[in-house]
Amino acid sequence: MSEANPREELRAALDELTDEQARTLLRWAQALREQSRLLARPPGRRPASAEEERLGMLGELLGIERDAREPGFCRMRLPVGRALYNPHGVLHGGVVYTMIDYSMGGAVMASLPEGQRCTTIEAKVSYLAPVREASLTVETRVVKLGRSIAFTESKVTDDAGRLVATGSGSMFILGQPAE
Is the same domain home to 20 and 78? Predict the structure, then answer.
């Protein structure tokens, strides 16, 4: 018994997907392609352009988009659809957590000199309202930037400006500034 060509199987499976499922699969394929390209980049090298500066595979798979970033601040958006729901018919809390975590990292990274990076030490999320079909926006501000730890606060709102979650976290700062 011979194995079918995986590309042919994928093409056949595409016809059975809804448009929303096809968009999710497309984001996944784009993220895989980008991940391969980033792995080919020399370690420690920062992106040379905004086009190269991507969120990463998980953020892209979920559909998170960076809207603004400057030292001490990051804003990201996410259109919410059924593909991101939990079994109870509302947005999965892990998606909100992931948005906050990416935004925390974006706000802190924009504050650091070249040669340094950050990683999450801890994050706390308070879920205030369920979310269904909507677009979410997370805004994160750096509350304090120390030499080795940064503290952040985040607010997540929906299209109507309703506060649906808050977050706070701390990020460990790694590396030495480039000279």
Answer: no
